[in-house]
Amino acid sequence: MRDILKEKHIFIKTNYSDLLAQGITFNQILVEMYKIETGAENFKTFKKWKEEGYKINKGEKGFPVFSKPSTKLKEERGQHIEEGEKARFFVAYLFNEKQVTNQ
C-alpha cells in the first residue's frame, strides 16, 4: 500500500507545479490514475457502498488514498480539538463499481 502511494507521489512530484496551478488535489490525481488503470468511473468507500445497498466482492482490494485531516474529522463529529493540535492524515480505501454487487 505504501509502495503504491510512494510510486504515485513520484509522478505527482514531477508534475506538481502544473497540477497545483490547476487546483488539483493529491487524492483527485490518485482517483484519476485509478480510473485510467481500471476503466472504472465510480469510487466510494466501503461504508458508502454499504449504505447504498452494495457489498464488496470477496477478495477485492481497495485503492489507497488519504483520508480527511484528523482535525476535520473531529470537527464533523463534534469532538473537541485541542489548541495547537496538528492534523494527521490516515489512509482510506476506495472501491469501484466493478468490485461491488447489489444486495
Structural write-up:
- The protein is an alpha+beta fold.
- The chain has one domain (2-102).
- The chain is 45% helix and 18% strand.
- It is built from five helices and five strands, in the order H-H-H-E-H-E-E-H-E-E.
- The protein has helices spanning 2-14, 16-21, 26-38, 46-51, 70-77, and strands at 43-45, 54-56, 63-66, 91-96, 100-102.
- A three-stranded antiparallel β-sheet has the order 1-4-3. A two-stranded antiparallel sheet has the order 2-5.
- The longest helix is centred in the first third of the chain and has 13 residues, at 2-14.
Q: Strands, helices and their partners?
A:
Elements: H1 2-14, H2 16-21, H3 26-38, E1 43-45, H4 46-51, E2 54-56, E3 63-66, H5 70-77, E4 91-96, E5 100-102
Secondary-structure element sequence?
A: HHHEHEEHEE
Helix content: 40-55%
Structural class, by secondary structure, is alpha+beta
Shape from CA axes?
flat
Question: What is the rounded Rg?
Answer: 16 Å
> Uncertain regions: pLDDT < 50 for 5+ in a row?
none
The strand order across the widest sheet is 1-4-3
Tally of separate domains: 1
Distance between the termini: 29 Å
User: What is the number of helical segments per DSSP (H or I, 4+ residues)?
Assistant: 5
Beta-strand portion reads 15-25%
Number of E-type strands: 5
Averaged pLDDT, please? 85
Biggest sheet, open or closed, and with what strands and sense? 3 strands, antiparallel
